[in-house]
Amino acid sequence: MKKMILSLAAGCMLTSAYGQQISQKEVARIINTLAADDMQGRQSGTPSIDKAAAFISNEFRKAGLAPLSGEQNYLQSFSRYGLHTVATTLTVNGVAQNWPVLTIGASRHVQLHRDTAQCLEIKVTNADELRAVLGKRKSMQKNIVAWLAPSLDAYLANLEGSISSRMYATEQEVPADTATRQMVLILEREPLKADDNWSVDQTRSIHAQQFTNVVGMIKGAAKPDEYVIYSGHYDHLGILPPVDGDSIANGADDDASGTTAVIMLADYYKKKRPARSLIFVAFTAEEMGGYGSAYFSQQMDPAKVVAMFNIEMIGKESKFGKNSAFITGFEKSDFGTILQKNLSGSAFRFYPDPYPEQNLFYRSDNANLAKLGVPAHTISTTQIDKDKYYHTVKDEVSTLDVKNITDIIKAIAVSSGTIVNGTSTPTRITPVSQ
């Protein structure tokens, strides 16, 4: 590996051995563990994400991190509220069928049958057709019943945990049942004939679902009440319809790569004496709507957060080549300029986000604090416009460049040095009106 030549600018906290402190072997170990098949895709609300949280907690423990102030351990738990199915009765020609039924929307009680007025039935045979049907949910002119082919079985559990019912911070915020039109997805385990009579009766009620961020910290030696945050999300999509026999959405790039960076940076900085307090957080439920970062942000005083390094999808070479990454919202503060200055003399470059049309700045976990004025940015390399593995079962470690990931983590460690030691403070972002 070609040794990176870096300036020893005052306050960069560099040592001649910094490269050995972030080893490619350790990066490979962590990312392979997080993206392994036995993690079952780390979907929020499933046992698999609890297993991932336990692994990350153990890594924070080995690094010697302290729990966040007010927490007993590294697990920052909270609840969100949504609708959960209580009872379902589906009959075909008067015979009860144990077929999966999922209601999309706020309806608490669904009663539909073949003769229901204004009821549109749609046969759905593949994922593209399912996406098209789901796209109709905000403009429905009549009730929709979508009969899904058996091959789409894995989609239903995924949808129930994400699109079927938005989650709310309190029970009182869950909207009243005012839906006049309903969308119901039914898995058709046996072929339904045109003259078959069917009926569905489903009851749903409000329930609480627990989520867990994993958070550790290093208390600052000189400025303990000023915080620098390193973050990534550790959840992913879980189980998807199989492709070539594989149904596990491993989420290696999205975002085991970023979570690996957070763990490695925790270990790196524990060996230093940072002036500012450092918080390392693996967020849950990013894929469901950023619930983990939203809760975390509500526990922080934004005035005390100096900067946030959110790290997402750094597993592949960026469009600018190796030794490069881009920063979302580059123009909104001088965060990126500080980072690049601290890498003076090196081959590594940080670039502005090359995909402004994707609105990535407000699509990741940095957004909740950025809206409050914190210079909170996401560092990434993903070529989002042409990544064929994004949100598929093919997002596996074998598609990643582990050496490149390691080099990016090293660059983040060194480039954040003056922010960590208190000699640089990024300008604030203009807050977004709530």
Automatic annotation (TrEMBL):
Coiled-coil annotated spans: none
InterPro entries: M28_fam (IPR045175), Peptidase_M28 (IPR007484)
Stretches assigned to the Peptidase M28 domain: 213-413
SUPFAM superfamilies: Zn-dependent exopeptidases (SSF53187)
Pfam families in UniProt: Peptidase_M28
Identification of the protein by name: M28 family peptidase
